[in-house]
Design goal:
Helix content is 70%, strand content 0%. By secondary structure, the protein is mainly α. The protein folds into 2 domains: 74 residues, no CATH class; 51 residues, no CATH class. The longest helix has 14 residues. It is elongated.
């Protein structure tokens, strides 16, 4: 998968199209939506864009969370880059934990949010209700 992911940027350059954060976001989102087997390509593209000086934003990291069982690692990586998780990040984490069959982790996100000074919003509450409904 990684060679294909790398080939996308190379092909674009051959066509005179310079990859930017928007284009990389589209590629990463598409790779993550394809499933776990494609996540290594998405992570590779993230590393490639960083090497090119194109800094990922919080939205881009949020795209990776549902595709990874190691969501906490992604949040830690965000923080190391100086990007603090927002309510959207936490909502994505709740959903990721739920889909991984870890409802306790999903509920624990609320505590983490509050410690960070972020109050749960309607989307957070809806995601939690879904977790509780499916238990």
């Amino acid at each position: 998968m990684v060679p294909k992911a790398d080939g996308i940027a190379v092909t674009m350059r051959k066509l005179g199209i310079e990859p930017d954060i928007v284009k990389y976001s589209i590629f990463i989102d598409a790779l993550c939506k394809k499933g776990i087997g494609m996540v290594s390509g998405a992570e590779y593209m993230l590393d490639t864009m960083e090497k090119q000086g194109i800094g990922p934003d919080g939205v881009m990291y949020d795209m990776l969370i549902p595709a990874l069982s190691k969501a906490k690692d992604i949040v830690d990586k965000m923080r190391k880059k100086g990007i603090e998780p927002c309510d959207g990040t936490y909502n994505t984490l709740v959903d990721a934990y739920w889909k991984e069959g870890m409802p306790t982790g999903a509920v624990g996100i609320i505590s983490t949010m509050r410690k960070q000074g972020i109050e749960p919003d309607h989307a957070t509450c809806n995601a939690l209700m879904e977790v509780m409904r499916c238990q």
